[in-house]
């Protein structure tokens, strides 16, 4: 049995400061937007404030998760560390986004047929400020979104907020031009639909990690073919590949060597193949002699 180790703090740890700055900006603006929403009577503004509340919670959970993920294990039982905390934080983001989307939809439907007085000027100013805040956060988080599922969750939240701010600006202009509060309700419903769609997309990724599915770009059949191409390898079985957390993929496999192969050389070459071609962070490979009867393969 042999191991190829690549211990690191995870992709999110490198971008923790970006999450911290984004959290501060979003939290401060959330307070401003919530007060303005109640003052203006705008459902679009209130819905965007609700989404911002989800952002504040999500970013806060992401920051806590990154701290937990890099914490040393003192129990000796967490053999894979606490890296999955980041994935659970992303799952929380999904639940919050869906809850906010449903709430917005219910409130919007309940307002149909009503004609509330809206302060479109306040809506416009707050919408513009919100867009500026969101653009700054997008620039901060974009660098880490492609590396970390946790940062990606926060990034998608901010994208949704940016569109929400644009929606608030549009609602303010349309209400101001037409005097019809119906536009505020329509745009609020559009924001709700977008939030739920983005949540479902992120949720599928989270479930893929928790379900230990093979990561995208690392198909088991392709890994098997690559290992079979290594000199000295006669057979590959019991191969498993999954994602521990963002930037940390794991694989295990049993490799049967040829009659004249040197096991140590095969192990080094096979480990290098997984590391260099597939960026496998942690590979556990069991080398077996041809015709060996000691291998007890799993039946699942």
UniProtKB/TrEMBL annotation:
Pfam families: Cation_efflux, ZT_dimer
Gene3D superfamilies xrefs: Cation efflux protein transmembrane domain (1.20.1510.10)
GO molecular function: zinc ion transmembrane transporter activity
UniProt subcellular location: Membrane
UniProt keyword list: Ion transport, Membrane, Transmembrane, Transmembrane helix, Transport
Superkingdom: Bacteria
Membrane topology according to the record: Multi-pass membrane protein
Annotated family: Belongs to the cation diffusion facilitator (CDF) transporter (TC 2.A.4) family. SLC30A subfamily.
Descriptive protein name: Metal cation efflux system protein CzcD
Organism name: Micropruina glycogenica
């Amino acid at each position: 049995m042999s191991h190829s180790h690549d211990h690191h703090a995870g992709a999110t740890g490198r971008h923790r400061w970006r999450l911290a700055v984004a959290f501060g900006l979003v939290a401060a603006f959330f307070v401003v937007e919530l007060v303005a929403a109640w003052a203006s009577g705008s459902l679009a503004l209130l819905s965007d404030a609700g989404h911002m509340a989800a952002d504040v919670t999500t970013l806060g959970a992401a920051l806590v998760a990154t701290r937990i993920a890099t914490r040393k294990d003192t129990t000796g039982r967490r053999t894979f560390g606490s890296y999955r905390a980041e994935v659970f934080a992303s799952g929380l983001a999904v639940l919050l986004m869906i809850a906010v989307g449903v709430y917005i939809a219910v409130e919007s439907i309940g307002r149909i047929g009503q004609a509330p007085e809206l302060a479109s000027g306040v809506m416009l100013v707050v919408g513009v400020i919100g867009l500026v805040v969101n653009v700054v956060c997008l620039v901060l988080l974009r660098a880490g979104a492609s590396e970390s599922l946790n940062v990606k969750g926060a990034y998608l939240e901010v994208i949704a907020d940016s569109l929400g701010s644009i929606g608030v600006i549009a609602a303010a202009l349309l209400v101001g031009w037409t005097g019809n509060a119906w536009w505020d309700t329509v745009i609020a419903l559009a924001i709700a639909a977008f939030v739920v769609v983005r949540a479902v997309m992120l949720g599928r990724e989270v479930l893929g990690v928790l379900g230990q599915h093979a990561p995208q770009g690392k198909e088991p059949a392709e890994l098997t073919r690559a290992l079979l191409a290594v000199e000295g390898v006669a057979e590959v079985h019991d191969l498993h590949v999954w994602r521990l957390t963002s930037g940390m993929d794991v694989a295990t496999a049993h490799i049967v060597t040829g009659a004249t192969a040197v096991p140590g050389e095969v192990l080094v070459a096979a480990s290098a193949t997984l590391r260099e071609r597939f960026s496998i962070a942690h590979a556990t490979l069991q080398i077996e002699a041809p015709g060996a009867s000691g291998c007890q393969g799993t039946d699942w």
